[in-house]
Structures are given as structure tokens and as C-alpha cells.
Amino acid sequence: MTGYLLDTHTLLWLGLNSRGIRPEALEALMIAPLFVSVASPAELAIKAGNGKLPLPSPFETDFEVAFRSMLERIGADLLPLELQTVARLRHLPLHHRDPFDRLIIAQALQSGLAVATRDRAFSAYAGLEILDV
Prior knowledge:
By secondary structure, the chain is α/β, with parallel strands linked by helices. It has 7 helices and 5 strands; from the N terminus they run E-H-H-E-H-H-H-E-H-H-E-E.
């Protein structure tokens, strides 16, 4: 394993200082390279825009600056979406129907990263390593 790709809820818990992460998982995240899918800011922007997810005021003022600041604070790199990953979606089993989670799963598999998530549906994907947060 070369690092962890953070599911969007894990990113929020780390980035907004929530106590949602188990101590053992937090310890593992603090010593490994962290990555965030470009799908996560898209998911946050869409959910905040339609009122399903309240975000702190810096995100309302300048979403890009607030998001980049959060990445910097937690020491995570933004993982771009490559065409090979998009192509992999075509053959990814439909164990999970959320399009953002499916992108994260495809990116993790394509990049050889484990996913830090609490979402049990991720475990249905063969070859996907998961850190239960």
C-alpha cells in the first residue's frame, strides 16, 4: 500500500476536526501519504449548492481557497482523474451506485491506494484495500 485515498466523509472529518475517526485509523492516517480524489470537491460543491451539506463559511466565500487550505492542513494531495480511471468505471461492478464513490473506488484500484472510509459497500470490490475509519 502506498497511501490512502480519503472517501469524502473521511476528508471532512479530518479537515474539519471532527471526532468521527477511530483513534487507530487516525494514527494510520497520520503516518501515511494521503490523497483526495477530484471527485470529492465536486461532491461537496454539489451537495452544498443544493442545501444537503452545510459547510463552514470559508467555503461559501471562496470554495477553491477553502478546499486547498483544508488539503494543506491535513497534508493531502489532490488526485486528478485520469482517462484510464474513467474507462475502468465501465467494468466496475455495481455494488455501489453512488457515482462519486464509484469514482473514488476506481481511482483507488487504478492507483494502488487503500480507501479510508466507513462505507461498508466499498468492501464488495475485489482487490480494494480499506481502512475502516
